[in-house]
Design goal:
By secondary structure, this protein is an alpha+beta fold. It has a single domain (about 5-200), classed as Alpha-Beta Complex (Fumarylacetoacetate hydrolase, domain 2), CATH 3.90.850. The chain contains 4 helices and 14 strands. The longest helix is centred in the last third of the chain and has 11 residues, at about 150-160.
Length: about 200
């Protein structure tokens, strides 16, 4: 399996990081070694002093596809989830300044938290899903898929031009505004339509 991540898919997040609005989706990959094991804490790596949480809606692919048309994209997934793209922001900034890839800042061990999935059928409108992240009981990020620059089915069409999608692949669809530093003893909890789908301790 592979994790396919989309960057800069919410306008307010683009603005908060002072990034340029892209003309096409920004894609990067995480290896399966970046997946944080269930019920395990997230350990802040020793190579970063500024790891940020980025909560994102996830899509789990259920069949193999290549060059998928947007009108057929909905047949390639039955489950929606929520996760965190942990980002070593200080390291990412240094890499970006030098025009280098982001993988060390985005794809390190444990950098991808994957919460529980819910059936797509349980969601009234895939393009109108509310989600939020709480840190120690306080809402720190909240979003709705209606604000995506590229909606889920459009992302599947675009991604499948370049990468064959396989069963079990997971798409991270981008984060809304509100990303911020995590600290030891933080407790992060993610909610998809007010249903808690993950909880993780920061160490």
């Amino acid at each position: 399996m592979k994790l396919i991540c989309i960057g800069r898919n919410y306008t307010e997040h683009i603005e908060e990081l002072k990034n340029e609005r892209p003309s096409d989706p920004v894609i990067f990959l995480k290896p399966d070694t970046s997946i944080l094991l269930k019920k395990q804490p997230f350990f802040i790596p020793d190579f970063s002093e500024d790891v940020h949480h980025e909560v994102e809606v996830l899509v789990k692919i259920k069949k193999v596809g290549k060059h998928i048309e947007e009108k057929f994209a909905h047949t390639y997934y039955d489950e929606i989830g929520l996760g965190i793209d942990f980002t070593a922001r200080d390291l990412q900034s240094k890499l970006k300044e030098k025009g280098l890839p982001w993988e060390k800042a985005k794809a390190f061990d444990g950098a991808a938290l994957i919460g529980d999935f819910i059936p797509k059928a349980a969601v009234a409108d895939i393009n109108n899903i509310n989600f939020h992240l709480e840190n120690n009981g306080k809402v720190v990020q909240q979003g709705n898929t209606s604000f995506m620059l590229w909606k889920i089915d459009a992302l599947i069409e675009y991604i499948s031009k370049y990468f064959t999608l396989k069963i079990g692949d997971i798409i991270f669809t981008g984060t809304p505004a509100g990303v911020s530093k995590v600290n030891p003893n933080d407790q992060l909890e993610g909610y998809l339509e007010n249903k808690k789908v993950f909880s993780v301790k920061i160490k």
